[in-house]
Specification:
With 220 residues, the chain is α/β, with parallel strands linked by helices. The chain is built from 8 helices and 11 strands. It folds into 2 domains: 2-119, Response regulator (Rossmann fold, 3-Layer(aba) Sandwich); 123-217, Arc Repressor Mutant, subunit A (Orthogonal Bundle).
């Protein structure tokens, strides 16, 4: 899943990014409200982790702008403002959950899991490919798509990117080879295998030279 972390405390920002990455998610960070608002207006996210006390644009203003754009992305507020009225204001502005600082990392991770489950549909459809989010299995025309664990991880990452370019380094991290010298070659091998298996699905994995890969519907 793709998670936007909006937090100006660099230590906490790095800690949340690492925790989300360790859980298999792609964490994008923003240190101020203006940057967060720009990202949310231009890119899709599966969850927003949002601090309230931000430079430039306040967290509540970021949240209100997100909802005015009619985006239903789940939002988890993290803030040092622990008064009841602050909590109520955040929830009334469209937040889905609220945690006061300091907090336990285990509780944060549990709330992230709950919000991501709430925001998911049962499956993703792309061309003739249907991907079940719970079982992490694909079907093409009703027939099971037989994938290895690494192939499934790469395909799911590309599916969640919704047509955006995914860097090789991100795909390498998804299969647990981010630090390996051969990570680029491994990703290329798995992408090659996926291309053959997706040949009847009406989708293709395109190489964007120097940048990564993108999943697109095949052009006849």
């Amino acid at each position: 899943m793709r998670v936007l972390v909006v937090e100006d405390d660099l230590t906490l920002q790095r800690g949340l990014r690492d925790a989300l990455g360790g859980a298999g998610h792609q964490a994008v960070v923003a240190g101020d409200g203006d940057h967060a608002d720009t990202l949310l207006a231009a890119e899709p996210f599966d969850l927003v982790v949002l601090d309230l006390g931000l430079p430039q644009l306040d967290g509540l203003a970021v949240l209100e702008r997100l909802r005015r754009r009619r985006k239903a992305t789940p939002v988890l507020i993290l803030t040092a403002r622990d008064r009841t009225e602050d909590c109520v204001k955040g929830l009334d502005s469209g937040a889905d959950d609220y945690m006061s600082k300091p907090f336990e990392l285990a509780e944060f991770e549990a709330r992230v899991r709950a919000l991501l489950r709430r925001g998911q549909t049962a499956s993703l459809q792309f061309g003739a490919l249907e991907w079940c989010l719970e079982s992490r299995q694909g079907k093409v025309g009703g027939a099971n798509l037989l994938l290895s664990d690494h192939e499934a991880a790469i395909l799911e990452c590309l599916l969640h990117a919704r047509g955006r370019i995914v860097e090789k380094a991100e795909l390498a991290r998804r299969i647990g080879h981010a630090d390996a010298a051969s990570s680029d070659n491994l990703v290329e091998v798995y992408v090659h295998r996926l291309r053959r298996k997706l040949s009847l699905a009406g989708v293709e994995i395109r190489t964007v030279r120097g940048m990564g890969y993108v999943l697109r519907e095949a052009v006849e």
